[in-house]
């Protein structure tokens, strides 16, 4: 995505899924296939997965900053088999140590300063992208950017980071029924 390439700082909040920039190929494949079935659209899943994986190269570029907040509930959503989810959770744990990434998890029992309404991505301080069930909204007015930045700040207060985020992810992983 061109917006990812031209952006130095991305702030993303996801309430129902793992952010695309942090997805494993298998998790993305399952999620994209479910979405194609729901929307009754042609399945170009393999190409979509390749595109998503190429987009992740930005995570390793110096001078970039990616700040993610994920509501713990998103880590419990069963969009794929448990073994695929386990690998996805392992990927999140690995991302915690990267110098370009800050990953926060809002635990299910956290005291919230704001309820997690829907996911959104803030690109620098110039654009907010919100995905709905049938559309992707690109918001670039100063008032919209300020509103979503304030929502980001409120959600950030409820998130845990570093070792605490690792523990939150590990609890979810331990709850998986992997045979």
Question: What do you see in this structure?
Answer:
The chain has 179 residues and is an alpha/beta fold. It has a single domain, classed as Endonuclease, Chain A. It is built from six helices and six strands, in the order αβααβαββββαα. The N and C termini lie far apart (37 Å). The mean pLDDT is 93.
Number of spatially distinct domains:
1
Provide the CATH topology.
Endonuclease, Chain A
Gross geometry: globular
Largest sheet: 6 strands, mixed
The top level CATH class name: Alpha Beta
Strand coverage percent: 15-25%
The CATH architecture = 2-Layer Sandwich
Taking the alpha carbons of the first and last residues, their distance comes to 37 Å
Short description:
With 179 residues, this protein is of the alpha/beta class. It contains six helices and six strands.
Structural descriptors:
single chain, 179 residues, alpha/beta, Endonuclease, Chain A, 6-stranded mixed beta sheet, 6 strands, 42% helix, globular
Q: Secondary structure elements and their pairing?
A:
Elements: H1 2-6, E1 9-14, H2 25-39, H3 45-55, E2 65-71, H4 82-95, E3 101-106, E4 120-123, E5 127-131, E6 136-139, H5 142-158, H6 162-174
Parallel strand pairs: 1-2, 2-3
Antiparallel strand pairs: 1-4, 4-5, 5-6
Helix pairs in contact: 2-3, 4-6
């Amino acid at each position: 995505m061109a917006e990812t390439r031209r952006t130095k700082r991305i702030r993303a909040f996801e309430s129902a899924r793992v952010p695309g920039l942090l997805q494993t190929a298998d998790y993305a494949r399952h999620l994209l296939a479910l979405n194609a079935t729901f929307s009754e659209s042609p399945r170009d899943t393999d190409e979509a997965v390749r595109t998503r994986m190429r987009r992740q190269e930005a995570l390793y570029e110096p001078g970039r900053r990616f700040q993610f907040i994920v509501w713990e509930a998103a880590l419990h959503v069963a969009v794929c088999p448990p073994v695929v989810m386990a690998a996805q959770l392992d990927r999140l744990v690995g991302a915690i140590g990267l110098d370009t990434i800050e990953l926060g998890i809002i635990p299910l029992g956290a005291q919230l300063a704001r309820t997690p309404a829907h996911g959104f991505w803030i690109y620098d301080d110039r654009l907010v992208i919100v995905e709905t069930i049938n559309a992707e909204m690109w918001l670039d007015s100063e008032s919209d950017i300020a509103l979503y930045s304030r929502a980001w700040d409120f959600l950030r207060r409820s998130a845990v980071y570093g070792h605490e985020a690792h523990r939150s992810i590990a609890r979810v992983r331990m709850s998986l029924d992997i045979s």
